[in-house]
Amino acid sequence: MKYVSTRGEAPTLAFDDVLLTGLARDGGLYVPESWPHFSTGEIASFASLSYKDLAFQVVQPFIGGAIADADLKSIIDAAYSHFDTDEVAPLTELSDGEWIMELFHGPTLAFKDIAMQFLGPLFDHVLAARDEHICIVAATSGDTGSAAIEACRDRNNIDIFILYPHGRVSDVQRRQMATVVAPNVHTIALQGTFDDCQDTVKALFNDLAFRDRMNLSAVNSINWVRIVAQIVYYFWAALKVSAPAGSVSFAVPTGNFGNVFAGYAAHRMGLPVEQFIVGTNANDILVRFFESGIMEIEAVVPTISPSMDIQISSNFERLLFELYDRDSSMVARTLKAFRLDGQFAVDADILARTRKIFDGGRYTDNQTRALIANHYAKTGELLDPHTAVGLAVSRSHRRNSSTPMVALATAHPAKFPEAVEAASGVYPGLPAHMADLFDRDELINVIPNDLAAVRGFIEDRAKNADRIGGAAP
Question: Does domain 91-108+229-424 correspond to CATH entry 3.40.50.2000?
Answer without folding.
Answer: no
